[in-house]
Amino acid sequence: MRIVLVGPPGAGKGTQAAFLAKNLSIPHISTGDLFRANISQQTELGKLAKSYMDKGELVPDEVTIAMAKDRMEQPDAEHGFLLDGFPRNVSQAEALDQMLQAEDMKLDAVLDLEVPEDEVVRRIAGRRICRNDSSHVFHVAYKAPKKQGVCDVCAGELYQRDDDSEETVRKRLEVYHTQTEPIIDYYKVQGLVVTISALGKVEEVTARAMEALSRQAA
Questions:
Q1: Exposure of 37 by Cβ count < 10 A (0-12 exposed, 13-18 middle, 19+ buried)?
Q2: Catalytic one among 69, 88, 170, 208?
């Protein structure tokens, strides 16, 4: 299957993408991973992307599109892929359509993870990270540490990242609504959008997604 995964920040896209890609035996292609890989390997696209990032500018669509195209042409993506973070806007969605059409391919589904805005804010703004080890992550409501402000694993100080503040989260949601959400309408016209609730336990959301995708593929 060839799938695009969409949803607001805090919807659990990364977590669901990993589970779905494993269940469907297709590669999980994340924009973040693409950027990191190209920059660390110092590819021409990576150097170009870094030149914009170092100036604090957005990487142009054509660079992101070229990275995605290169990754989708790898042998492991021959029979399908799950795109996470791409396309991010309608221009990228149109470019993806053109890429696939040139190869006589098409998308099978656009999986839209739906989460109420207040829940997104609650999920992200409640996160607390350990200063000693950023892999130690807690949540004031869903995974509270035994002692407030102290990491259960190493007793390090827990803090809230600047980009996890409620004000920043709401700004990120605004960007999502204006830039990324329009691709849902773009794909609805093609009959590709499958919307599911991303509320509940991770495995419940995964099961819901798998069932919705199997219906779409039928």
A1: middle
A2: 88
**CATH superfamily membership of 2-217:** P-loop containing nucleotide triphosphate hydrolases (3.40.50.300)
Specify binding-site residues for AMP. Answer: 31, 36, 57-59, 85-88, 92, 161, 172
Per-residue pLDDT of the chain (218 residues; tens, 9 = 90+): 999 999 999 999 999 999 999 999 999 999 989 999 999 999 999 999 999 999 988 899 999 999 999 999 999 999 999 999 999 999 999 999 999 999 999 999 999 999 999 999 999 999 999 999 999 999 999 999 999 999 999 999 999 999 899 999 999 999 999 999 999 999 999 999 999 999 999 999 999 999 999 999 87
Residue of 22, 106, 161, 215 marked active site? 161
Instruction: Please state the residue numbers annotated as binding site.
Output: 10-15, 31, 36, 57-59, 85-88, 92, 127, 137-138, 161, 172, 200
* pTM confidence score: 0.89
